[in-house]
Structure formats: C-alpha cells, structure tokens
C-alpha cells in the first residue's frame, strides 16, 4: 500500500487553533501548554469522521502536534495530552492518516506506546485520560496502520511489552478488554507473528514470570485463546525449530519449551495440534535426561484434570506408556508417579496403566516398587473405585517384598484402606466387600520371620483394624465381628500375636522380679543381656517410680486407660529434649506398645460377653455385619477362649460366668467346648468366691465328661482338675461309673468314656494308675484292640472322611490314645507296661493296622490305625523314661510311617512330627525321619518336608545361641548330630535290599542329599569337616542293632561311603582338620575293638560319579517310592495320578498297584574292600 501525499494545511501553512486556544509554542510555560492542550483535546474529542471542514481546518494543527517539540517534551502531562490528541487524529482521519512519513509514523506510535505506561497507576489523577487513550486506540485499531511499516515489529513488540508490564490487579475488566482488543487485532489482522513478538506473549507463561504478575499471565492466556487459529502456526514453527531441529538460538525461551508446552496445553490444546507429534519423537531420544524431561511434561498433560489428550492422540499415549519400561531409572520412576494423578483424574485409563504397573511392581529398583504402592494407595484413598482388583493385588504382593521399606508401605497402605472403607464404611458395603481380604492378608504377615513385620502387624492391628482410641463398646464390637470374619490362618496369626505379647509381659515381669532380689543376684543376670536390655535394666534399677509404672502396666488388673497413662509417663521419663534421635527410647516404645493392654481389660471382656449374649438372644447386628448368628456365637466363644489364656483375670465376674454357663447349655458342640475351656483357664477363684457358679458348673462338667463329645469330655476333665480343690473326689465320681459301663459291643458309646478315662489317668496317676491297669489289660487290649467285631467297607479306598470311619475303629484309636495318656501320667516303667504297649504298637504297624490279621478291617480304617500307632510311639518318645526303652527297630517302624502308602497318613504324621520337633519335645533322632521324605512321590510333600527341616534346624541353632547352658547338651541339640541317626535309619531302610544295585544306591543318595543339603547350607564352626569326621567314625563301628550281621554292617558302611561322597561333592572345606571328636549314640553304634579304616582311591572320583552326586531334579509327581515287602509298610508303587495330591478331606486315596520283589538278597562278597570296589565300579560305569 502506498501512502498518499501529505495533505497541505489550509491558509498557506498557517496553523489554525480551536476557538479560544492561543498558539502553542516553546515560548510559553508548561502550565500554559497544558492548559491550551486540554482545549485542543476537547476539540478533537468532539470531532467525528464526518466533519470534513473541521478535518481540513485543523490539519495543520494535527501535523504540528507530531513535531519534535511535543513528541520529546519532558513534561508528562504534555505528552499524555498530545498522545490523546494523536489518538483522536487517527480516529478522525481514519482510514487515511495525515502522516505519510514512515519514520514519523514510527515515532508517533512509539511515543503513544510509551504513554500507555501511565495505565499502571490506577490511582493517578490522570488515569482516566490514559484509559481514554487506550480505549481510543483499541476501538479504532490505530496500530493496524503500522502493518505497512517495514519495522512495524519493533512497535508491536514495544506495545505488547508495555501492556504486559503495566497490567495489574487494580485494573478493571474494561482495561483488560481494551488491551486484549488492541493486541488481538494486531495478531489476527497481520501477516504473521514474528518470533520476537511471540516471545513477548509466551514469556508471561513461564513459571517465574507467572508468579510475578498473575494478571499478565491471565492476559496472555486470554490473548492466546482468542487468537488460537492464527497463532498456532507460529507456535508450531517455534517448537519445531527447538525440539526437532535443535535450534535453541531462535529464542531466549528455548530452555523453557517444556514449561511452555504445559501452559499452552492448559490454555487450549488446539495451540499444540502440530506440536504433539514432535513430543513423540522426543520420547524416543537417546538422551535419558531428555526423555525424562519429556516424560515429566507429558505426565502433566495426560494427567491434567480435564485432559483428553490420551483419547485424542493414541499414538502419543502408547509411546508414553512404553516409557514405563525405560532403561533409565528416573524415567520409570516419573512414569509411576504420574500414574497416581492419572488414576485419580482419568479412571478410564486404569486398564491401560494396569499392565505397566504390574511390571513395575516387580522392578529391580526398590524406589520404583515403593512408588507403585504409593500410586495405587493414594488413588484408592481418594476413591476405591479408581483402583481395580489387579492394582490392589500388586500391593498385596509387595507385602512380601524383600525390602522392608516396600513391605512397610504396602502394609500401611492396605491398613489405611481397610480403616477407611471397612471400618468407617465411607463408601458403602460394596466397597468394604471389595477389600475384605485385607484384614486376612495383613494378619498372615505375622507368620513372617522378620521382627519388623511382626511389630508392624501389631501396630496396624492396634491403630487401624481395631483402633485402641475407640471407646470400649465400639472397640469390642469391632474386634468381635472382625474375629468372626477372619479366615483360619488369620485367626491363628492373631492368636499367636496375643500369645507373644502375653509372653513378653511375662518376661518383663521376670525382669522386674529380679530387681526385687539382692543387687548381686540381679546384676548376674543382666551381664549377658544385649546392649538395649543392659541399658533398660540399668534404667529400671535406678528409677523406682519407673519400675512401679511398668509393674502397673503388666499387672493383670491394669485397665486400658491406666495402660495409656503408664505408657505416657514412662515415655516422658525417658525423653531427652536435647537429643533429637533417641534409639533407646524408640526401642522402649516398641516394647511398651507390645506389652500394654490397649484392647483387653475387665470392661472389654464384659462388653464382649454382652455382644455374645445379644447374638445368642438374636438381638445383635450379626446379619448387618455380614455374619450369621451361629458364626458370631462360635467365633465369639473362640475369641473369649483365646483371651482367657492371655487375660484370665479379666474374666473374673459373676456376669461373665453366667453368660458362659448359658453357652454350656447350647446345642452347638463347639460353643460348649470353648465355654468349658474358658472356665478351665479363668476359674481358679470360682470355688472360693463364686459358690453359686460352682454349684451350677459341677454337674454340667460331670455330664460333659460322661456323655459329651470327646473334645468336651477332655476339657471337662481338665477344667475339674484345674479349678476345684476336691478334684480327686470329682474325678472319682466320673471315673468309677465310666469304668464300669465300658462295653466293646457298643463302640459308638465308648469314645467319650475312653477320652475321659485317659485324661483322668494322665492328670491323677497316683489315684487312678492301678485301677487303669486292669482296665487296660482286660478291656482295652484284650476286648477292644485284639478283637474285630464288625466287617469294614471293602471299597479299596486308602482314606475316608471322619464321618465314614466306623465307630469301632474310632474307639480303637481312642484306646491307643488312652494307653499313651495312662503311661504319660505314670512317667515310669516299673511295671513294664510301657514295654508291652510299645510291642503292641509295633505289632500294629507290622500288621499294617490289622492287628488281628483277620482281614475284616477296611484299608481306610487300617490307615487310621497305622497313623494312630505311629503317633503313639512318637508321643511316648517325648517322655525321657519311655524314649530310653524304645528300641531301634521300634524307632524305625515309627519313622517308616512317613513313607506310608496313604497320602493322608504321610501328611498328618509329618505335621505331627514337625510340631513336636520344633517345640524341642522329641529327641534329635526323630529329625532323621524327614530324610525318608526324599522318596515321597508327591512334590508338595517333599517341599513341606524340606521346609520342616529348615525350620527345625533353624530353631535348634537359635536355641543353642540363646542358651549358653545348651553347650553341655550339644549331642541332643546340634542339628549335625542327626547324621548318625539318619545313616543308621537308611541302612535299615526296607527298600535297601541290594547294596550293589544302582537304583537303590541312588535312592539312598537322594535321601542323604535331602538332609545334608539343608545342613550344609553354611559351614558354621567348620561343620562340614565335623560331618565328614562323624561319618568316618561311624565306619569304624558296628551296627549295635545287629553287630554280628555282616550284611547289615556292610549296608551301614555303604551308606557311610555314599554320605562321604555327598559331603565331598557339596563342600571343599570338608577335608579340613576337625579338632572336635563327634560323639556317636551307643544305642545305634557299637565301637569295635579294632578300628577298620576304609580307604578309597581318589582316582575313582570320575566326572560321572561327581555328576551322579548332584541332586536329582524332582519331577512334579515322579514315582520315587519302590514296592516294599516289609513289616510296617505296604507293598505299593506310585504312579502320577490326581490322588497323589488329594487333600486331607479327600475321601479317596486310591490304592496303587502292588508288585512283589525278590526277597532274596545278594550274597555279600568275601571282604568289605571288594564290596566297595564293586560299588564304585558300578557308579563309574553308569
């Protein structure tokens, strides 16, 4: 566009002023100039574009006002008035300006722009004139004239900078609107936006500037929204040059591109239509830090509240999800942190995130696994519907993480969800049901070995599951229904937790009792304590008040409120203000949290009993809480039963006992049984203080002992023995009628009397041992065990449910238990009754459960009797006087039950064996029985046996460490001393008939490896060399079971040789010198007069032999057991069938095909040396 020729003013260039306005020159004062200019401003304000005559008349004045005198006048008021005039001139003369010189126009607009700075002060007297100036410029779009100027960009940049700098929170909406109109017209009507001009807008979006001038940010935001169609191309070009082409020099804002993208996206995603594909390119950058920056940006974009980017740009979303698997740890961490916001703001994307969070929940980096949990829990706390079952499952898995920090976060997170949705019901029953598994899972963690896990579970239980801050009634209601809803394992864990806390209270009481002794005696016990206990003991010794508070805390009569006061006082006494971290105080807090009775006291038990009464009466909220009344009653009694062990004093009230008496009269057998046990645990003062309860209770107990269920009878007898002073009279009143009424022809009526008689004889042996002897001889053995009155079911099943077992067999099982209880009560073998009983039990095992061998009894019943006989021998072995008379043959028969043909027999026997061993009740030799489990055909059984071995070995080693006196009993405690028993047991394994047969040797090797692998995990105190020396010493003895049997001794030596090779294969340290001389059990090994040393050539240790000595990979259900024809074990071969893994409740443990083997054993060679050479040759050949 060509500018027109400058117009000539009328009157030969003479300037015409409005009427009453004198000439304005530099000769007059500033005040006069201002006065005259105001009149000029008034004149121009009143003119409009149609005033052609006036326009021509005042043209000269218009040109005069653009002179240097006015544009550079030092007076602010003069400049403002001139600017207003110029703005009106542009309005009046539009669309043609009277100024045609480009330079003059530039000077004028820069001058006007500078005057706009006056808008900043809204309280200025001249602000209205500044506003008029802005309004005029915006309405006329005066700055559009500058589009024709070559350097118009300079004017626009200055204008934008000015407007962004002057806007503030004192400006009203009109000011902002005019600024917006002025700038948007320049952007929308121009040919494009230069980078410099774009920078003046975008710089206001940068966080630093945004925080300095919020109004400038809002103005830029509104401007971009209005001009999105025009400015988007310019923005795309800017980001293209910076992101793709790497030209950071194009703008000073290049280093802020990611901040700008975030802000622009928040303003209007349309501004970034062309930019998003560039981000996808950046996500695949080779620079980890660059990927991290892009991931941080996109996380904010995708996670924004109303963002639809994920649905609108699926390729970018998928590319972003791929960064969850980035090799760069910070990138993966950022992705996981983003997931929390995404889940909360965009639940529809949860499915996409789930699979990636699953992988990250197993990330090798602890911090990432931790943040996965935080992400899921935070979303769940906001709204449980935001997290699906899979996501919660990831948190559940991490409760078993190898790192404590991760486990703690997972456990605490689940606890918070449980408290919010299950306890407080913040989202209704449906949500509570969704996470009902949390309570069980948290309590299951108490089974973990780590003390940190146990302490956290206790803390979670006290603060989140049953908050101790609740009032007593609410707290007990919470506990009552929680206990009713827990699964079996969770109940066991909770019971164990209470028992551990009770045991700890007992230990603290013992410590306090020591302080009541003379100083010298007390000091002797504390010297061997750990550092914490030493300091704690010292503090207790120095502070009598502290001891008093602690004694009150562990007192059986301490209430929950008193406990809180005691804990607070003790903590206050041990707090040192000048010490920011106090590990000792933290340990004391842990101790106090565990021993303080924050849940249970007399008031709490009373509240529980009231809840139980309501359930019995049918007035409780059982159904509303999600449990049936029967379940609530039964679980409530079980809860009270457990608490009766740990808090017996809290039960001592007539009200509580009256409620328990009502439970005794109920038809539910389990309820009555639990009630009796509660009386047994808590009723020591009933006889002296509650006579009415006593008179009501005695006949009920008598009735239960005579005609109740077996469990009720047992508890009734024990209850009478525990709480009554005249127990002898009471027990005699039960014993005599029961002993007279025994009748083997009615076996279903025998079970309860046999249980009662057995327990009576065990509890009061002095009174009833003699009468029991005649009952045992004449009735138990002769009339019951040695007779088969009924014919069993011939369906061929090896196992049947408890309901399917015949009454006669159930009576026989109870008869066997009666024998054991009778002997355990006497605890002596003066009458040789124990020898007779052991022979009877052995005969039952030899006859496979069919003692009479009349073949009337079914296979499933025979399995029950074999299990009972094996368990009876094991029970007797727990009493030292009977263990000494158990012969090696009887021990072997008992041990071989673990290889029984019936899966359930093996399973139950192994569990009983483990429980007795782990409590250190059974002698060490019985641990050797687990070696035979290597031959079990079921993988699960082998795995269980290995876990039992690990646990037992760990318990024994820990016991030796914790008990200095145990050093004197190492032979009976040290796990390594199981090896001689194992070798002897394997040498007499009925499967081991052909010492030169490869398959049999391989089985022996597997059994040895099964035990030795666990024993030799660590070489503590040169134990490997000790094992080697022990085995070598056995080779210098004879088999004490049959010292003159050459074949038996050869088998013993062969097992030793295989053991030596297994040890050598496992450890290179076994060849070191061992100063300790192992002690061998004389019951099993007879020292020879002349030691026989067995030497083998090292050259026979071929690679094939070394390979053979490696552990054989066990098949899932491989056939390992071999057919047997030996007393006490049935002939069977295992096949891979579904019945191999049948559970205890299975009604069918299918009989497996039987085969026979040649009973003739190979003749031994002339010398033992030749026997060994043949064996090694066989190994090398194979």
Notes on the structure:
It contains 57 helices and 2 strands. Helices cover 63% and strands 1% of the residues. The radius of gyration is 47 Å and the shape is elongated. It is mainly alpha-helical. The chain has a two-stranded antiparallel sheet with strand order 1-2. Among the domains are: 466-515 and 533-642, no CATH class; 652-724, no CATH class; 738-922, no CATH class; 928-1106, no CATH class. α19 runs antiparallel to α20.
- What characterizes the major β-sheet? 2 strands, antiparallel
Helix content: 55-70%
Uncertain runs: 1-12, 521-529, 1091-1182
Number of discrete helical segments: 57
Distance between the termini: 105 Å
Radius of gyration: 47 Å
Strands, total number: 2
Q: What's the average pLDDT?
A: 83
Question: Given the helix and strand composition, which structural class is it?
Answer: mainly alpha
Q: What fraction of the residues are assigned to beta strands by DSSP?
A: under 5%
What would you call the shape?
Answer: elongated
> What is the multimeric organization of the chains shown?
single chain
Read across the widest sheet, the strand sequence of neighbours is 1-2
Biased composition (Low complexity): 1133-1155
Subcellular location: Nucleus
Protein name: PDS5 cohesin associated factor A
GO biological process, one term: DNA repair
Question: Any key phrases for this structure?
Answer:
single chain; 1182 residues; mainly alpha; 57 helices; 2 strands; 1% strand; disordered N terminus; disordered C terminus; PDS5 cohesin associated factor A; nucleus; cell division
